[in-house]
Each structure stands twice: as structure tokens, then as C-alpha cells.
């Protein structure tokens, strides 16, 4: 759990890459309440049902996906054309006893030709009924839509992985907060569907979307997926770090009527030193 200190007072930046967040500290409300928190989720609450995340000061960041996935799109393994993908949708994950994931399991049993079964194939250590990372990528790319339900918390790495394999993410997590919403419009590159309506109506809706529309969504997704990669500025001008710096820069903005701005009777703004 790294942290950074800004100049002056109690201004600190804490990075919580896991779901536990600031609640790792029982006394977070006393000691971290004025710090900026970088975390992939914004809805984690403690036993008192209070959240450490504050939309006024804190920043949602992308999850750190597997290195092999970040280089996937530039490898010799190319995405499958939409017309040749085997499934309409897939969910390659464990049910974990979560109602949304259990519903997807049952839906896959009813429509095995449309939805790849989450019970048989999911990422994790290689073993019985388990896929290694490379096989997982191959399966993930074989559907037009990748379903992204909530797990232990509202966010999941699968959302970011789908962009590398050029599969349109369908978010099934009502409370999820996505990174860089000040600069990214998620409507043209993803779908968010209410978790209370997981069923045949979801598959019917996805099936009604023409391939040319899906292609447009994928093309728009290509332009922003570099923001999920934690590359240094020396390697890429577009990266998760660049996005985080954008968000932190916004925290330094001044109010319009600040000590540094002056205005005249005609509405023009002048600088002190001009």
C-alpha cells in the first residue's frame, strides 16, 4: 500500500489497489479523512456501513490487469472477426455464491449456444476445469459481448480485460464507479445493464444489436484502452498514470472567484501580472 505526500499539512495520497481500501485501518476516519485515496472501487463500506471513498477528493483508478493482457493487442494473436465468434456473450468467472453470477450460470445452461458457461472456464491457477491465462484470453475473445458482473465488490478486472480482446463489456454491477469519468464517455464503448434484469431479456437485447454497431463500439474502445495500462510516461504518452495525473491536477483547480482572478465591469477576466 504505497502512499505519497504533497507539500504542506496533512495532504497525502494513499493508493489502495485491493478491495479492502482504507478500511484496512480501523482509524481511517481520524487519520485519513483529509487524504486523497486512489482505489479501483468507490462503494466499499465498513461494518458501520460508512464508506472511506469521497467523490469530492478521491480518485477511481483502473485495476492492474495481467501484463500478458496489456500486450495482447499488439501480439501476433489478433481478435476474431465478429462473424466468426462462437458466442453471443460469455462470462468466464466463478459464481462465488453471488446472485448475479449464479443467474448467469443458469442462463448459460439454458442457452449454451449463446452464452459460454461460467462454470467450466474461468481464469486462475491451471487445474481441473481451470484455464491458464493464455487460454483464458483465447476464450474471452470468442464472444461479441463480455459480461461483467460484480464479485466480492462492485468492480472487476474483467471490465478492463475485455478491451484488449475487443469484446464489448456489459456491466452488470449497479454500484460500480469507473475511472476517469471526467474525460471518458463510457456510453459509446460499453453497456450497463441492471443486475435485477439478468435473464433472457438481456440475451435478446444483445442479439438485437447489429454487428456494425458493435464494430463502432469496439473501435471507440481501442482509442481509450491505453488508459488501463500502467506504463511509465517514458514508454507511453497514454497510460493509467497519465489519467491519474489528470484527475489529481483537477484537485488543484481554483474557484472562479479566487485570490488569483480579477474581473471588470464588462465581464472580462484579467491576470494580476498582465
TrEMBL record:
Membrane topology classification: Single-pass type II membrane protein
Pfam name, any one: Exostosin_GT47
Main location: Golgi
Residues covered by the Exostosin GT47 domain: 2-198
Keywords: Glycosyltransferase, Golgi apparatus, Signal-anchor, Transferase, Transmembrane
Keyword hit for Chloroplast: no
Family that this chain belongs to: Belongs to the glycosyltransferase 47 family.
Name of the protein in question: Glycosyltransferase, family GT47
Originating species: Zostera marina
